[in-house]
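User: Sequence in, structure out. Go.
Assistant: Echoing your sequence, followed by the structure tokens.
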Amino acid sequence: MIKELIVVEGKDDIAAVKRVVNAQIIKTSGLGIEEETYEIIKNAVKRTGVIIFTDPDYAGEKIRRMINERVPGCKHAYLTKEEGTKKGNVGIENASAEAIARALEDVKTVVEGKIIHTVESVGKLGLLNGKNSRLLRQKAGEALGIGYVNGKQLVQRLNAYGIEEEALFAAVNKIKEKV
């Protein structure tokens, strides 16, 4: 059983997650998050904790940011786009039980005030521009369990989750060996 409240986007996501874990789950019903939903999330952060588990697409990332801005202190779980895609449709409801379980086991917690990475340091690894930078970011995000983001957001997410330089270097070097 997972003690935290899990926040997903819709009823199909709830069904997919419930097939894998025993947990309390709430849906946002997409981008139009109601005030009552924010209040439930705020109360849950204090009582049990909250895991935001949105789809690996633009809308899912926007919902994640909206909640994070209004309710600090949430944890985050991520699926890769490949794990959440079936017949061109992207969503948690399309992921395998194994992928959902992995994402919920590899939850990330925001670490306040810890600056490890800069645009310059991440740029030196080839993650911000140049040949294959987008693919490298995608694969690094998957390897580190933080999802795919653009270069600026990558630096922010690496710092937010306190991912050490060694972990980033190891992930990037492993990826470069395969690419």
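User: And one key feature?
Assistant: The mean pLDDT is 93.
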